[in-house]
Amino acid sequence: FATQQLNNLGDPKIEGRFTANYESAGGFGLRYQLQYIGQQSNAAFEAQNSFQGRNPTNADIFPNANKNFSEVTYHNVRLSQKVDTKFELYLGVDNLFGKLPPFGLLGNGAGDAIFPNAGRFLYAGFRVTL
Fold first, then answer.
1. Using H for helix, E for strand and C for coil, what is the string for the chain?
2. Which pLDDT score, from 0 to 100, does residue 90 have?
3. What is the pTM of this model?
4. Where are the domains of the chain?
5. pLDDT for the residue 113
């Protein structure tokens, strides 16, 4: 018999990113990125849902409230300033609001690595163009 991968942990039906960039004539730059991860099943999809006309294989594996991992969004921001044509300074924050993976997940294994596991991540640096 068949199984369904779509909607299982790590394979949401909808997942994507939106990025907006702005750069001024004076060399100031701003980048905003939104990452969206859609709802995913807490167990094998066919364990909790009808599939190919068959009843769920284990419909009460989890209470209804815990059947799925909820959709989630992450926000990243980066500021930069070009000092001259070859030198740029930058500062950024990934996962601006510090969201951790859903309860019970570490964000580092098969399926759950789709979620950032570091919480809020601050960084700064410079770029030299040779």
1. CCCCCCCCCCCCCCEEEEEEEEECCCCEEEEEEEEEECCEECCCHHHHCCECCECCCCCCCCCHHHCEECCEEEEEEEEEEECCCCEEEEEEEECCCCCCCCCCCCCCCCCHHHCCCCCCEEEEEEEECC
2. 98
3. 0.82
4. 15-128
5. 84
